[in-house]
Write a structure and sequence with these properties.
Elements lengths: L1 E8 L4 E7 L12 E7 L13 H8 L4 E6 L10 H15 L1 H4 L1 E11 L1 H11 L7 E5 L5 H7 L17 E6 L8 H12 L4 E6 L25 H14 L2 E2 L2 E2 L6
Parallel strand pairs: 3-4, 3-5, 5-6, 6-7, 7-8
Antiparallel strand pairs: 1-2, 2-4, 9-10
Length: 254
Amino acid sequence: MNTVSITLNEERNVTLTAYLQTIASDNAYIEKRPAMIVLPGGGYNYCSDREADPVAFEYLSVGYQVFILRYSVAENKAWDNPLKDYEQAYELIVSKSDEWHIDIERIAVIGFSAGGHLAAACATIAEHRPSACILGYPVITKQTTSVYNPEAPGIDELVDDSTCPCFIFSSRTDNVVPIDNTLKLATALTKHNIPYELHIYAYANHGFSTCESCIQQRSWICSRTPSWVKDSIEWLKDTIGDFNGGVMGKRSTW
């Protein structure tokens, strides 16, 4: 594996960290891989480390090329700086697709909390919309969004017929981002007949990430909550395809 760190905007401290699987003799038959862009949470004040590398490694382990985007936060968070950061990262990934062995038709995004707001914006209003979007306890409604980034839009109001398929997971007891955010997004997706899968777990504190004990106390997390990782990977296979004889299999038409 090769690791590449790129500064996208020095003034706003925006960086893209790429974890790239090499084309070695034992996997040379895979010439193009899907990509995952990871958008950590942090309330638009910082980018959370526990929603960066731990998440990236889950998708690396199943064959993705993975990118962690540390987007504009704190004094640089004004909308739409974070969305512009995503657009720049996406364009760079596409421009390097041959060198980095990426299937540009299969670029997904995953975001958590405020990063989930940004990921949902990517799915709904970005110029370069991803093929699939995974959202962990996302900030969605204008009421909640205004707490963290007052100029940013409410995403449930922006869902349209071109929104990409979504996988959403949240906790009923989230004490930071009310579950109403997830429910309103699901309602909007249903209205526009956008494919989605939704998991609302019985209890878990906000920010559980991959649910490893080094990240969050397991006693605070419903025993089924860690299943979101495996379920999201299987959902991606259904949605954008799986490896099949050296190429990605057909994507679902739903």
